[in-house]
Amino acid sequence: MARTPITSPAEGRGAPALEALLAARSSCRAFLENAVPEDVMTRLFEMAQQTPSWCNVQPWQVTVTSGAATRRFADALTRDVANGSDSDYDFPEYSGVYAERRRVVGYMLYASVGIAREDREARARQAMLNYSFFGAPHVAVIATPARLGTYGAVDCGAYVSTLLLAAESLGLGAIAQGSLATQAPFVRSYFGLADDLDVVCGVSFGYPDPEHPANLFRAPRAPLAESVRFVNE
Asked: Is residue 42 one of the residues assigned to a domain?
């Protein structure tokens, strides 16, 4: 049977709900200790599994830690940072408007937790919290077969986006973290991942700490005109 097209948000009952999730979601940088129940976690990843992908290849390979396993991984990852970074992907070179947007959200984070812009030592300590997952009880490592190249990474990006929105819908907090990808060889070795898997990123998740100042600001979004061009003729 042909699917009935939705012609307006009012007709599509899911549209307002999606708008609400998009508006409510933010990167969580402080978590409660409470573990996510197994049934909720299963539902979370079942929802993420519905992500569309190029030719339906579903390339994401996901490793999820809980409890003591998360803390052991955090401790080991934090120690490994001292050995330098090595990513499977070229790290972005931010310039122009992209560098400015990055600076804005960084300064918003520092201001929220009381770090002065010139306090490089405190900023470095804040950055290191990435490797302990901001205290999250769970982290998901997202990897993709290297042979799938750009489109494998793009598919994993779509998966991460779905995972973040699914977490929001379940009352969870989550944050996508490229910092885990900067230690790709270590992450691969630690979890015994195949050598032909590229580490794309991590997603730390759990129940957000609603009182922590790092969770009380919202990163701004650029005006639509800066990103979208409509061509009618």
From this structure: yes
